[in-house]
Design goal:
The complex is a heterodimer of chains A (116) and B (116).
Chain A lengths: L4 E3 L2 E4 L5 E6 L6 E7 L6 E7 L2 E4 L8 E4 L6 E5 L8 E8 L10 E2 L3 E5 L1
Chain B lengths: L2 E3 L4 E5 L4 E3 L2 E3 L6 E7 L6 E7 L6 E3 L2 E6 L4 E6 L8 E11 L2 E6 L3 E6 L1
Parallel strand pairs in B: 2-12
Antiparallel strand pairs in B: 1-4, 3-9, 5-6, 5-10, 7-8, 8-9, 10-11, 10-12
Chain lengths: 116, 116
Amino acid sequence: GAGVSQTPSNKVTEKGKYVELRCDPISGHTALYWYRQSLGQGPEFLIYFQGTGAADDSGLPNDRFFAVRPEGSVSTLKIQRTERGDSAVYLCASSSNLAGGRETQYFGPGTRLLVL
Amino acid sequence: AQKVTQAQTEISVVEKEDVTLDCVYETRDTTYYLFWYKQPPSGELVFLIRRNSFDEQNEISGRYSWNFQKSTSSFNFTITASQVVDSAVYFCALSVNAGNNRKLIWGLGTSLAVNP
């Protein structure tokens, strides 16, 4: 597909469980971002990848959150020992590294995570 | 401080009315980018426009127009002859330098309801 895709679209889990959320960026986009959005709020930055490396992980709330992008394309956001407060929509975005294009982030449909 | 303020939390109009969504920003950067995104009930953030700080020309795209004024640090968005399909949450965002990243600073969004 042409856009950013995210799987699963919905995830329900129990407190204390481990979850993985996947993001497949637009083909050729080297920059990838993860955000979290709570109801009635704007997106909250979590982490930014340039290629395979996490260039900025300052938004990760604590060490239960981790993300990887081993081949510079697909990324996985991993949450350990989930808590009810982790319930949110997790958004992924990607952007081109070409001059004039790197500033615009294109978003996926999000994964709605509910921790019971 | 680097901040985006969308003072209007909710707006309700009747179809065919014109509506303006306000956005005021604060930044120390001399080079920055401003964005508008639309988030329909489906949840996906849809990119509408990017404007860089050196380009104060207003832009029109169909029924959408944007008014960028550096003197008042505003980047307002007008929908002419609104339609029910315009119902969504609209976010204004500011892209600023953050070390080796450019971060998006988001407003809280304006929820627009267009009623038939």
